[in-house]
Amino acid sequence: MQKYQLNFNKMKKITFTILSLVTVFFSCKRNDVEDLKPVAVSVAISFDNAYAGYNFPLKNTEVKFTNLSNGLVTNLKADETGAVSLDKISPGNYDIEAVLTVSAADYQTYTSTTTENDVVFNGILKSQSIVQSSNALKIALNAGKIGDWVFKQIHYAGSHTTNGAGFRDQFIEVYNNSNEVLYADSLYIVQAYGSTSKLTAIDITSGFFQSGTKQYDWTKSIGMNNSKANTDYVYSKNIWMIPGTGKDHPVQPGKSLIIAATAMNHKVPFTGADGKTITVKDPSLTIDLNNADFEIYQGDYLGLSQLASDIDNPNVPNLKNISIISGRDMILDATGREALFLFKTKRPQSEWKRTPAPDKLDITTAVDLYYQIPNAEVIDAVDIQTPLEANRVPKKFGATLDATFIFVSKGQYSSQSLIRKTGKTVNGRVILKDTNSSTNDFTELDMPDVTKTVFK
Fold first, then answer.
1. Phi, psi values for residue 376, rounded to 5°
2. Residue 113 contacts by C-beta under 8 Å, 6 or more apart in sequence?
3. Are residue 266 and residue 319 in the same domain, yes or no?
4. Cα separation of 192 and 326, whole Å?
5. Do 130 and 175 lie in a common domain?
6. Which of 113, 141, 169 is a domain's end point?
7. Fewest CB within a 10 Å sphere: which of 172, 310, 348, 360?
8. pLDDT tens, residue by residue, 131-185
9. pLDDT of 7
10. Does residue 450 fall inside a structural domain?
11. Which pairing describes strands 182-183 and 250-251: parallel, antiparallel, or unpaired?
12. Looking at 223-281, which runs of residues are DSSP E strands?
């Protein structure tokens, strides 16, 4: 009897434990379900101050919600007041992009300004947390600058590192997108500087980064007394300039210039700066840049040790090295953590402000200083990312310069190249698409085109 009583008590304890676990399990499941309960969100679209007075209609502004955890996209259109709303959306972090296209005719009607192209207004909220039961957000639209010069092609990925030319065959192509002759003299080509740490690895509590974009907070840089340091400026890593006295390098409407890292035929062997032969195993993976319009040569720049592959082609003029922070050639980040922009300025270089990165606590001779370039002087800008979302880094440009980003789908050393899409053709002249949104403006080529004739 005593033995039976002990077993009975033991069984009661086991039963109680199981019931407790079941209760906890269903309680947790119920809490999880409650945590994932759909929430409501509304977005109010408006124009920023520069365009608020023109009274462009906001109806049909396209608003795209991208769930950053699963990639799901929800598309909506705004009503007459610029409002969009969702009664039910999964809680989480979202990129929210608003796009409004105003036809060239309507733009002229509202602003009395003539333009050949439709004007695209963009606004974006990056990594927006939508977790409350009700979320009210605002997005300001800005058209940015529609440039006469645009990047037509960017071959940043390079070709296979053992069978191809690696980074040696990288180049960029700039295009005259206007209807008049432009002079390339004193056009600056710039690699933008910013944090290249993965978004998931950035600690915004350190005080060095912006909470929304997770890019550097330049207002925290030593000696920075400008509250608009993040919104009205971009920062340079390497700067090169097309030389000339003003009218030495005319470019006709619808024509372009190819600027090579090394203007050589990378399909055939050539002798490097160290006297050794540079060759490739599979010439079909790379390109002939021997006829580039310009090249970048840094072999004699301020004590830099010369890169063996950085050969100075005497038949191709060199860009002027203005400021080189890193690299012994124009080496674009083949993984895609890159951002490029074009600008022109009447300000002498002596007046350009230089600043350390926000995470530098002292300025010593070992600390790099980055030029601060006003957005107003930027003509075109392209933000490039990696194909794999988990490896992406903070965007270096705001919506006024490039609202989105772009990449080649096959990734680094794939021989692929970014190519700008055709917007329209006027009297035989191709006008390339320029909406200040790289996702919309660019597509890709499986092999770069150096004939300056391919358009998609």
1. -65, -20
2. 107
3. yes
4. 12
5. no
6. 141
7. 348
8. 988 899 999 998 866 669 999 999 999 999 999 999 999 999 999 999 899 999 9
9. 52
10. no
11. antiparallel
12. 233-241, 250-251, 256-260, 270-271, 277-278
Q: What is the pTM of this model?
A: 0.82
Do the Cβ atoms of 222 and 360 come closer than 8 Å? Answer: yes
Looking up tokens 């365009």 gives 51
Do residues 94 and 241 share a domain?
Answer: no
- Kind and range of the H or E run holding 25: helix 2-35
Listed in sequence order, the residues at least 6 apart from 384 whose beta carbon sits closer than 8 Å to its beta carbon are 154, 156, 333, 336, 337, 338, 339, 340, 405, 406, 407, 418, 438
Q: Count each helix (H run) and each strand (E run) in the chain, helices first.
A: 3, 26
Q: For residue 74, what pLDDT is reported?
A: 94
Q: Is 74 exposed, middle or buried (0-12, 13-18, 19+ CB in 10 A)?
A: middle
Q: What is the pLDDT of residue 171?
A: 98
| CA atoms of 108 and 102, how far apart (whole Å) | 10
3-state SS track over 399-448: CCCCCCCECCCCCCCCCCEEEECEEEEECCEEEECCCCCHHHHEEEECCC
219 and 322, same domain (yes or no): yes
Calpha distance 79→257 (Å, rounded): 43
Residue 382 lies in a domain: yes
